[in-house]
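hey so i finally got around to running the thing on that chain from the lab meeting. sorry it took forever, my laptop kept dying and i had to restart like 3 times. anyway pasting the input first so we r on the same page abt which one it is
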Amino acid sequence: MLIKLAILVTHPVQYFAPVFRELAQQQDLQVKVFFGCNHGVIPSEDINFGVVFKWDCQPTAGFEHEFISTSSLKGLRGIQGIKLATKAVAAINRYQPDAILIFAYSPTFITVSTLLLGLTGHKLMLRAETTNEALSRSYIKDKIRQLFLSFYYRQFTHFFPIGTNSINHYLRMGVSKSCMTLAHYAIDTDFFQKQVDFWLPQRETLRANAGIREQDHVLIYCGKMFPAKNPLIIPDALEKLSSVEKEKTWFFAVGDGELREEFEGRVKLQLGERTIFVGFKNQSELGEYYAMADTLILPSQNGETWGLVVNEALQFGLRVIISDQVGCAKDLIKNIKHGWIFSCIDTLQLAEIISQAIVQPKLRCRELKSLPHPSNLATSVYVQLIA
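ok and heres what got predicted. didnt touch it at all, straight out
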């Protein structure tokens, strides 16, 4: 018996594509992905990166898909969001699916689409980046959010939490644990393994060409540079290192955003020419910088529901230093073998951990079987469909 699955998502996301491709390969499953817009597959600006780009990892290849709109969803609220939602519902209804997997519960386009699809009796499942800890809210706002989400979640028959924080969120909103299947947030491990295999054998040469000594320690920041990511705590922490520690510390930054100029200037005050900011790099370009590094720092202070750069860094054999506001902390950082967790507001604690990282033996291998894989979600969805 052929099962038809519709998937609704805001736009092509590079991390979701392996899941969609794996689902599309199931013989008794027909899959079609409905994207709200085509951001990411045509050159367009990302507000937080502050650059125009498109992903170079083919985020729409290998599965049937349809774009509901070719205009960006940014700022699309109210009546416009509702209009786009009605177009999405009409397109999905024409497809006549047996079930619908929805990614996220916002923006308006997703929210209204979900409610309309629920009213028409569709079987709905949810995979969203949910947490209780990403943002601080007032008591009143928190209660309003809780009431709305408790109602909203009643539209779904099953949930796929991305980690421990996500499970706790659903439980708080009244979702039964029997209606959940844990599917950790994952990167395309096959895609990154090709970069691991290509770049890691060149590590010593790359470092030597950059002037990095064998005993030096390379810290790396990879991501957007804006306030929620809290990057400016890093130069504050570096300032507290001893002169000996600074002399053997390098800092790489991959990414861009509104804080880049200040971030770069303040790190250079501490480390001088051992500071390298390379700007935005696409998915296929990241391996060179991970291969030269020893420790990733992700200091986010809010809004980081998971932190997929941690998955990437672990696959390259790096240790990681992440704040207590990064969602994957409870799931991926089990002990010092993997890295350290610090309070996002504690500069001294971050400095002390950087000091520890500098003297730790270098890691160049990792048990990849311990890392979340995209197939976890694909398999979980498939099992629910055929159950």
